[in-house]
Design goal:
- The complex is a heterodimer.
- By secondary structure, chain A is mostly beta strands.
- Chain A is built from no helices and 3 strands.
- Chain A has a two-stranded antiparallel ribbon.
- Chain A is flat.
- By secondary structure, chain B is mainly beta.
- Chain B has a 7-stranded mixed beta sheet, covered by helices on one side.
- In chain B, strand 11 (114-118) and strand 12 form a beta hairpin.
- The chains are: A mainly beta, B mainly beta.
- Chains A and B meet through strand 1, strand 2 and strand 3 of A and strand 3, strand 6, strand 10, strand 11 and strand 12 of B.
Chain lengths: 35, 149
């Protein structure tokens, strides 16, 4: 199970809802690296 | 990226984390059995209780570090951990709750319209997201077979 390590600064949240994917949350940060 | 999936024969929830920090990148509910979906009242009951922090959750990545030995150049499957963890979806009038356990929150992390609850072992117990009336109507039609006039 996912275990919380720590809390960092808020990011921008994008929510997608449609009839095929009940929920998708994407979190965006200017400093996010493509690792 | 690191991947965690709550998965089984008829359910799938995918989580993507930053490899370097463990910060949450994406959550996707892909498949849920009808028996695990129900209607609820409002998100208020979910949000009540526990210590509340505003911010973005970053998760412990020790299990992935063991699997990848800290290297980014590994078989992509070693970046993914699957657990047969069932979850419930509660479609409320103002949002959606994804619940893994029925235990009360020990800590809640809120971030915009999203909120994450953790139990007393700091394990993710639920998440919620506030939705528009139109988004709730889509979920009620697709998951609960309820038409909103």
């Amino acid at each position: 199970m996912l275990k919380l390590d720590h809390v960092v600064a808020q990011r921008t949240v994008t929510t997608t809802i449609d009839e095929y994917v009940p929920l998708r949350l994407e979190f965006h940060s200017a400093s996010t690296s493509a690792d | 990226m690191l991947y965690w999936r709550a998965t089984g024969p008829n359910h799938l929830l995918e989580v993507k984390l930053e490899a370097r920090t463990g910060a949450l990148v994406e959550v996707g509910v892909v498949l849920v059995p009808p028996v695990r979906v129900r209607a609820g009242g409002s998100l208020q009951s979910f949000e009540a209780g526990g210590n509340c922090t505003v911010g973005h959750p970053s998760f412990v990545t020790d299990a992935w570090i063991v699997r990848t030995r800290g290297s980014e150049l590994v078989d992509p499957s070693r970046r993914r951990i699957d657990e047969d963890v069932p979850f419930d979806l509660v479609v409320c009038g103002d949002g959606l709750i994804v619940s893994f356990t029925r235990s009360g929150p020990g800590q809640t992390v809120t971030e915009g319209d999203a909120s994450f609850s953790f139990d007393d072992r700091q394990e993710l117990s639920a998440l919620s997201v506030r939705l528009t009336a139109e988004q709730v109507a889509v979920l009620k039609r697709s998951l609960l077979d309820v038409s909103i006039p």
